[in-house]
Amino acid sequence: MKAIYLIGFMGSGKSSVLRLLAEKMALPGLDTDQQIEQTTGRTIPEIFKCQGEAIFREKETDTLMKMPKTDAVVATGGGIVESTMNRNWLKEHVFVVYLHTSLAEIDRRLGNDDSRPLWKKHEKTELYERRLEKYRQTADNLIETDGKSPEQVAEEIYQLIRKENTDMLGI
Ligand SMILES: Nc1ncnc2c1ncn2[C@@H]1O[C@H](COP(=O)(O)OP(=O)(O)OP(=O)(O)O)[C@@H](O)[C@H]1O
Ligand SMILES: O=C(O)C1=C[C@@H](O)[C@@H](O)[C@H](O)C1
Ligand SMILES: [Mg+2]
Q1: Structural domain count of the chain
Q2: What is the CATH number of the domain that holds 58?
Q3: Which of 10, 16, 80 to mutate to test ligand 1, by most ligand atoms within 8 A of the CB atom?
Q4: Which ligand is closest in space to the CA of residue 31?
Q5: 87: annotated binding-site residue?
Q6: Could you count the other beta carbons within 10 Å of the beta carbon of residue 171?
Q7: Which atom of ligand 1 is nearest to the CA of 78?
Q8: Residue 47 is part of which domain span?
Q9: Spatial separation of the C-alpha atoms in residues 93 and 147, rounded to whole Å
Q10: Long-range contacts of residues 57-64, Cβ cutoff 8 Å, at least 24 apart
């Protein structure tokens, strides 16, 4: 089965949903941000501070290219769609679910979170609007997360995948 990749803006709940969905599907759950932190031995804010965003993006692409294409659930970093190479890889190889969340809801969830270097910047509205189309273009499916718990979102994706697989088998 094609691996399931979760994309969406910071705070859309990719990492939170990952654990629940991986458990439901009985598949390994991987997170590109966590993978980068493990392989570099640095936190994401440290990488941004010491090496800058461009180096972080290189590491993100290297990490993505090594991720499984089958039998796994993967949560990506919020900026994974910034790179054309990443978008093409996702579209070509895996099943992509876009967790859509309004900016007002993300504001409520993240507040003054300081673990996301790009969340501090005041251009977050512009960043959000610029990325929307990229998430939409890259995804096979969109799930609305506003007003839903991570458990509800995971269940919705689970049902969606079941339906996709049933349709594919023509049952
Ligand atoms: N459906 C939800 N309802 C309410 N709060 C949520 C929901 N999903 C996630 N959260 C909360 O929002 C915050 C961010 O969630 P999470 O880390 O899963 O986002 P993310 O999409 O992985 O972000 P990033 O792209 O930065 O990795 C956490 O505090 C989490 O508890
Ligand atoms: O939206 C983004 O560009 C980011 C989101 C996080 O998942 C991390 O990958 C990092 O903080 C950058
Ligand atoms: Mg995350």
Answers
A1: 1
A2: 3.40.50.300
A3: 16
A4: 3
A5: no
A6: 6
A7: 25
A8: 4-169
A9: 31
A10: 57/82, 57/83, 60/32, 60/36, 60/86, 61/85, 61/86, 63/32, 63/35, 63/36, 63/39, 64/32, 64/89, 64/90
Q: Which atom of ligand 1 lies closest to the CA of 150?
A: 1
What one-letter code names the amino acid at 36? I
Atom 1 of ligand 2 has which residue's CA nearest to it?
A: 78
Q: What is the pLDDT along the chain (171 residues), one digit of tens a residue?
A: 999 999 999 999 999 999 999 999 999 999 999 999 999 999 999 999 999 999 999 999 999 999 999 999 999 999 999 999 999 999 999 999 999 999 999 999 998 888 898 887 668 899 999 999 999 999 999 999 999 999 999 999 999 999 888 776 565
Instruction: Say what the ipTM of the complex is.
Output: 0.97
| Backbone torsions φ then ψ of 89, nearest 5 degrees | -60, -45
Contacts of 29 (CB under 8 A, 6+ apart): 18, 19, 21, 22, 23, 72, 73, 74, 75
**How much is the CA Rg of the chain, to the nearest whole Å?**
16
